[in-house]
Specification:
Length: about 325
Amino acid sequence: MTIENILLIGGSGYVGRHLIDALSRRNVRITVPTRRRERAKHLLPFPMVDVVEADIHDDATLARLAAGQDAVINLVGILKGGSGKSDGRPWGRGFDLAHFHLAGRVAQAAQAAGAQRLLHMSALKADADAPSAYLRSKAAGEAVVRDAFPGATIFRPSVIFGQGDQFLNVFAGLCAMAPMLPLSCPEALFQPVWVEDVAAVMADSLVHGDSAGKTYELCGPKVYALIDLVDYAGKAAGSPGNIMPLGDIPSYMMAWLLELVGGPMTRDNYWSMQVPSTCDHCEFGVLPFGRHAASLEVVGPTYLSDGRRRAGYDDMRETAGR
């Protein structure tokens, strides 16, 4: 099986940038659709990447993009899906469009175009009976993908960390700004996996034909409580914060308040964190295809230590209008 042309949906996002880097070393041509080309200008230096303006929610456009592709990869995912139900399903319209409808349409387009492989990014602990709409919608996405493209390879990572992440970097910044940091769900469990490891495993799967039709859980070598991750992020960035862990009811109330003001957390995020984001079906630190996961303690200092300085530069640029 030879993979020469790849359609990468969601390629301009965080994981996409790292996956493109991993794939570009394999001499493949990658097409990355985006609604606005300006948002993907960071991908333009890659000589094997074609960034095209396109509406992936249009069936005809999606079919045209999938035509002639050896593999299709879908990385699209959101953490806030809006409230209420959509088309009778128990999750918000955003989750419905991104995790369910788009997932199914991408799989159908890949199948119709005769693509050899389909890779789909899901989430650890996705389940139809999960307490959060996010995890339920991810499970529904997996089901519709399997129905349309039975040979799809599905990846279920825990929280992903690394250069430019929106997880540890955010907490490091909060530790630097807040004299006291109230923390919801402090005992929530995570098994963080490095973004470079996620990208490498996904790229590897394309040359392992036996990965077709399988689902892989992706986790790092160690389980952490959220409070320990926040404490680590603050210390690694040189801004150890005073963390105030909140109990169950205050955690929910804070999530509700932040949801109302458009903050970084919602009640659905609260419900997601009631489920341990840890791997059940693999050895700690062992990834598919003979890879071993890098530890947070090794990778974290390489980008968290100067995160506060970079954040300060970004603030100054924004103030200056640059």
